[in-house]
């Protein structure tokens, strides 16, 4: 059997991570994986998370199975946080998942079980795992434009491409802090997308992985909440990896909104059945931590304060990098970086230039140009700017 196994494609992010680990140069800089790092270069456990864990340990909560929908208190907390106080919450169902990727796959399976062969539209560029997850579930994938030639949001091109989406197609939209580009639509474009979805009958599928790290938690959730109020059906995949720092606890949530509560009567069971065949049920620890934080006024306030501080550090990294790159004479490229937001930035470099950045300067980003700006140590900002400038100069 094993002799028949053809060489599978290598995951590009983990392949680069392994290459970084094998690189003996002491000055090497890893900006590949999307994890937040503080000024020391470490990925800290948030104080609110640590306190919640202490309280949970003191209560000695049972390790008994939670059930196929996971932690129901966590699911309610996710609906409340993401959808707010609007009426959309009353026509929504949520189940806990194995992180955001698990939510994406569970919802992709739901789409395929409901309408096999459905076309899902994703942005170009897109998060590296969007297409593989959707295609593994048996769905067709098409793309719509996201950026113009100057690296800005291409609202006109996006709406033009999505005019080709048919009724009952699904359009995957990143709710904020777009990965990999760091470029989001403005409020007017989000309104136009909502109007187009309502008119043409396609279903928005919102991926929320970075809320709180762009313009602030409420601002980052505004587009998702607006869509939920404007369209009859909607899917949402939520990750707690980034904004709670629960990377290895794999904590996420899948949300389905219907036109009415009656339309949702079979949804939770369908999601439970899909979960049963994929992973049975999700891990409890991270969900219990998030629930403890969101249900306690003091912990919730502490978490929001920490989240704002993380966002401020990310903004300072990006502003500092843009300023240093501009000071080296690359004003256009610096302005493009300064417009971006969230954990990731797209460098103004080609695939060949990114390879040279890695080879000549020991700076690791993806071949597509994405770097994790949230993982950049403050004392390496100048080094990164000089590396980018060096690659640009030799190309010119």
Describe what this molecule looks like in 3D.
This protein is of the alpha/beta class and 396 residues long. The chain has helices at residues 12-22, 47-59, 72-83, 99-114, 130-136, 155-162, 187-200, 217-230, 267-278, 285-294, 297-327, 331-338, 351-361, 381-395; strands at 29-30, 92-98, 119-124, 140-145, 170-174, 203-208, 234-239, 251-257, 344-346, 363-364, 370-372. A seven-stranded mixed sheet has the order 2-8-7-6-5-3-4, sandwiched between helices. Helix 7 runs parallel beside helix 8. The longest helix has 31 residues, at 297-327.
Short description:
This protein has 396 residues and is of the alpha/beta class.
Write the layout of secondary structure elements.
Layout: H1 12-22, E1 29-30, H2 47-59, H3 72-83, E2 92-98, H4 99-114, E3 119-124, H5 130-136, E4 140-145, H6 155-162, E5 170-174, H7 187-200, E6 203-208, H8 217-230, E7 234-239, E8 251-257, H9 267-278, H10 285-294, H11 297-327, H12 331-338, E9 344-346, H13 351-361, E10 363-364, E11 370-372, H14 381-395
Parallel strand pairs: 1-10, 3-4, 3-5, 5-6, 6-7
Antiparallel strand pairs: 2-8, 7-8, 9-11
Helix pairs in contact: 2-10, 2-11, 3-10, 4-5, 4-9, 7-8, 11-12, 11-14, 13-14
Give the uncertain stretches in residue-range form: none
Beta percentage is: 5-15%
Question: In angstroms, what separates the terminal alpha carbons?
Answer: 52 Å
Give the fraction of residues assigned to helices: 40-55%
- Taking strands numbered 1, 2, ... along the chain, how are they ordered across the largest sheet? 2-8-7-6-5-3-4
Based on CA inertia axes, which overall geometry fits?
globular
Number of strands: 11
Helix and strand element order: HEHHEHEHEHEHEHEEHHHHEHEEH
Q: Supply the helix-strand structural class.
A: alpha/beta
Radius of gyration: 21 Å
């Amino acid at each position: 059997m094993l002799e028949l196994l053809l060489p599978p494609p290598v995951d590009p992010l983990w392949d680069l991570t392994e290459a970084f680990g094998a690189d003996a140069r002491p000055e090497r800089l890893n900006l590949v994986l999307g994890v937040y790092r503080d000024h020391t270069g470490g990925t800290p456990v948030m104080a609110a998370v640590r306190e919640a864990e202490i309280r949970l340990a003191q209560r000695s909560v049972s390790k008994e199975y939670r059930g196929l929908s996971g932690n129901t208190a966590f699911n309610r907390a996710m609906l409340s946080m993401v959808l707010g106080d609007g009426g959309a919450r009353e026509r929504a169902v949520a189940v806990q998942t194995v992180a955001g990727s698990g939510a994406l796959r569970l919802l992709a399976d739901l789409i395929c079980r409901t309408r096999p062969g459905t076309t899902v539209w994703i942005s170009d560029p897109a998060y590296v795992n969007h297409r593989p997850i959707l295609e593994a579930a048996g769905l067709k994938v098409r793309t719509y434009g996201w950026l113009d030639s100057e690296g800005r949001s291409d609202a006109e091109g996006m709406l033009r491409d999505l005019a080709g989406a048919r009724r009952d197609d699904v359009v995957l939209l990143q709710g904020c802090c777009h990965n990999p580009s760091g470029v989001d639509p403005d409020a007017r474009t989000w309104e136009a997308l909502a109007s187009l979805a309502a008119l043409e009958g396609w279903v928005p599928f919102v991926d929320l992985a970075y809320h709180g790290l762009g313009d602030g938690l409420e601002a980052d959730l505004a587009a998702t909440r607006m869509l939920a109020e404007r369209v009859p059906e909607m899917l949402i995949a939520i990750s707690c990896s980034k904004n709670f720092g629960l990377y290895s606890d794999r904590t996420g949530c899948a949300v389905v909104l219907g036109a009415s509560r009656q339309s949702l009567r079979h949804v939770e069971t369908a999601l439970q059945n899909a979960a049963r065949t994929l992973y049975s049920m999700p891990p409890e620890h991270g969900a219990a931590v998030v629930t403890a934080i969101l249900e306690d006024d003091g912990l919730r306030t502490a978490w929001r304060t920490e989240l704002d501080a993380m966002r401020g550090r990310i903004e300072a990294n990006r502003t500092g990098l843009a300023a240093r790159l501009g000071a080296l004479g690359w004003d256009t490229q610096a302005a493009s970086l300064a417009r971006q937001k969230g954990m990731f930035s797209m460098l103004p470099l080609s695939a060949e230039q990114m390879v040279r950045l890695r080879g000549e300067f020991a700076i690791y980003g993806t071949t597509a140009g994405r770097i994790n700006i949230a993982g950049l140590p403050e004392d390496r900002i100048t080094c990164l700017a000089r590396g980018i400038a060096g690659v640009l100069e030799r190309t010119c």
